[in-house]
User: Which sequence fits this backbone?
């Protein structure tokens, strides 16, 4: 599938078979509705961005005007939370100051929520940028990771989030 050449702005050649969807829709059955709505996709355009999908679904723990927070699907510790700008941007370097404020505000709220649930002894806050930086979801996000005394042998070793 020549997906790399197919983008929202350049949907590639269309064979106008009546009743048949465009080339774009046939090669992108999952992302079609999102593409059609102008919704951003993961750089691998065969997959919609999981965080944009979650934001669109409304299934988030908290939100403010520019950001949302939800639990990590594969938590590295109990309470592991992701705080994400609502706008699809690739990394924290692409987040503007207003968004950063809102992201930080949700980090503070999430911290209080997690701390109310269980005895937390410490925290890691981090973000991975780029494949080489360990980023697997290419929608900017900050990891809020509660730490528990004795959870790993050497607490200076930050979890690979
Ligand atoms: P990264 O490796 O990009 O810094 O972090 C991506 C994080 O997103 C990982 O911790 C992973 O467990 C989490 N994750 C991946 N897909 C989903 C998803 O569909 N929903 C949620 N809630 N978390 C996800
Ligand atoms: Zn996204």
Assistant:
């Amino acid at each position: 599938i020549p997906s790399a050449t197919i983008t929202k702005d350049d949907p590639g050649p269309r064979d106008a078979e009546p009743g048949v969807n465009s080339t774009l829709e046939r090669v992108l059955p999952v992302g079609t509705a999102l593409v059609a709505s102008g919704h951003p996709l993961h750089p691998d355009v065969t997959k919609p961005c999981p965080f944009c999908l979650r934001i669109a679904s409304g299934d988030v723990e908290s939100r403010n005007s520019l950001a949302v927070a939800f639990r990590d699907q594969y938590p590295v510790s109990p309470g592991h939370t992701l705080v994400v700008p609502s706008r699809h941007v690739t990394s924290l370097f692409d987040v503007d100051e207003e968004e950063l404020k809102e992201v930080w505000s949700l980090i503070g709220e999430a911290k209080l929520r997690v701390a109310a649930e269980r005895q937390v002894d410490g925290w890691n806050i981090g973000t991975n940028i780029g494949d080489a930086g360990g980023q697997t979801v290419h929608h900017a996000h900050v990891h809020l990771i509660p730490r528990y005394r004795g959870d790993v042998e050497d607490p200076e070793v930050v979890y690979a989030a």
Notes: Strands lie at 62-63, 67-71, 81-85, 122-126, 142-147. The two ends are 32 Å apart (CA to CA). Residues 1-38 have pLDDT under 50 and may be disordered. The helical segments are 23-27, 32-36, 50-57, 97-117.
